[in-house]
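Chapter review: from sequence to fold.
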Amino acid sequence: MPSRKADPFHWDGLVRLTHWGVAAVCIGNLWLNEAGEEWHEWLGYGAMALIGLRLLWGLTLARGHARLRALIPSRDDFRQQAVALRERAPAAPGHHGSGKLAVWVLWLLVLATAGSGWFQNTETGFELGADDWHEWCTWALQAMIALHLCAIVYTSWRQRSNLVTRMLPRRRRQVSQHQQEPHF
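The token string follows.
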């Protein structure tokens, strides 16, 4: 039976910042904010900026699983995912094949939602019915968010590993009294 020890893998700070930033924007704009308000528009721009920052990070300074190259799914990724889920193997660092694919779909849907929101406020966008595109994008984004959350719950349960902790700040270990440096 796989161990239930804490998962040592954590995403780097910028990945976590952009993930939770985009999540907060989506919550705010999809469920808390009224469409057409100035905040709605600025949060959409913020989402585009956060995804742009994450893409730039993944192309330049990111290491390991946070690099964009590591997020390109392959057939082998999907095979490994099927085996890992079937055998209830502990979650590997990074994303499975479907997780890699979901990252790209979510990024594209957020960008399409924000972009169509901006475009509907232009004369051309208004004439071309960009408000319909924006609405379709919001529905598709909400469906993908629901799928993302369900996949996290299912994979965490199936592999006996709390995947959410990978996106949370690391807890610092308490240093015992005898390990602390003396105070002078």
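Two observations follow directly from the output. The CA atoms of residues 33 and 55 lie 26 Å apart. The longest helix spans residues 130-158.
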